[in-house]
Amino acid sequence: ERFIFLEYYILAEGKLWDRIYEVLKVKTRQGVEVRLLFDDFGSIITLPNDFIQQLKKEGIQALAFNPVHRYISRLYINYRNHQKIAIIDGNIGYTGGTNLADEYANIYPKYGHWKDTAIRLEGDAVWSLTVTFLQMWETENRKQEDYCQYQPTVNIPGDGFYQPFSDGPVNNPHNPAETTYRQLISNAREYVYITTPYLVIDDAMAETLSTVAKAGTDVRIITPKIYDHWYVHMVTRSNYGRLMESGVRIWEYSPGYIHAKTIISDDDQAITGSINMDYRSFNLQFENGVWICGAPVLKEIKEDILATIAVSEEIDLVSWKRRPWWVKFLQNFLRLFAPLF
User: Fold this and answer.
1) Distance CA 310, CA 257 (A)
2) Distance CA 265, CA 118 (A)
3) pLDDT tens for residues 6-52?
4) Which structural domains are found in the chain, ordered by start?
5) Which of 67, 122, 147, 305 is most buried, most CB within 10 Å of its CB?
6) How confident is the model at residue 73 (pLDDT cuts 50, 70, 90)?
7) What mean pLDDT comes out for the span 178-191?
8) What is the rounded average pLDDT of the residues 298-304?
9) Distance from first CA to last CA of the chain, Å, rounded?
10) Rounded distance between C-alpha atoms, residue 119 and residue 295, angstroms
11) Which of 110, 121, 152 is nearest to 273 (CA)?
């Protein structure tokens, strides 16, 4: 009725976009303010050159974040907007790992079944998502926004606590996303379950996971068996050994590709959003997530991860150690470049 804000790393033409585009055109004709923010690098090969002009003709405001052709004079090319946010009237918000492309909705089976995670927020919790979107819009548009007109208009009671947060290179050397992950892992006593498409971690994160596992906490990590970037997958697998030797259990999702970015511990806390467990998410990209505490949705998150484990393949430490010499060499070599992945 008032506004629709959409923000994605990847936006691609296809059946999913066609459906959403038709809805957006109807809403603009009804007087709804519609804004679309997408990352220029993430969408560089999935959109036509005149895409923004097409949207403007329909009354849709659109911006490409950090255009690649001008990165030298503005933001460093690696500073990408990896956030994924949808906001309706400031009262309903969605965030998670899904982009606006057919494979994310399993319309196009790019790597088999696409497994992802997203969460719907209502009421006051949406405000932080709205602020994050407007801040990113201001960064690209360079015009001050009137935040007050986009505040929630309904107060929906609920159990538990939901705190959306954002992170980005402007926070360096302080990294709220990585710090929040490490605190949640460190505080776990019974279990901590993690799903991530990439496991490209530094020694500090590896030590955090190992220490908790050695203390008796049930630490489980699910990564993809079917990968999108072979070199990142090589580095991901190179980290299995030191973690498994400490008691961490690792599964690879085999029905397709797992893109979900979720962590849960002790039936008490969880984080879901756009954050991968890698250098890029923790240090280079603009990311967002939701910290959840004491909410009923935690049960659903745990059940979803356990169901994912049930269709995944557990990695055996003995078999991992027996991988061919050339694989070991390539993995160790690629780890030298891990911060670039």
Assistant:
1) 15
2) 18
3) 999 999 999 999 999 999 999 999 999 999 999 999 998 899 999 99
4) 3-150 (3.30.870.10), 163-340 (3.30.870.10)
5) 305
6) very low
7) 96
8) 98
9) 41
10) 13
11) 121
